[in-house]
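I keep forgetting this: the sequence line spells out the residues, with the fold written below as integer tokens. I include a record here:
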Amino acid sequence: MPQQQSSTRQRERTDYKEPRHYRVILYNDDFTTMEFVVKMLTTVFQKDIVEAETLMLEVHNKGKAVAGIYTLDIAASKVNKATKMARDEGFPLRLTYEPQE
């Protein structure tokens, strides 16, 4: 039986783009304790204690701060995890994510 040759060729994709990045923003409120914010930043965002305290003070003094820059799925996951952690502790902490310019 003769072999058939395939005329199909594989094309290589060379137009890959880096995924869009999103900033996770942490907002100040009058009820969430500074200690909880530091705990959340070290737990969810893997910040060291010095960086977590610096971010917490930026949120406290300026009203908001960027907790990190991630791809969409990671940003959404971190916002959900941090929000759940805050609600479980009884805090109204607000976090959002938005596209990085």
Observations:
- Residues 31 and 91 are 7 Å apart (CA to CA).
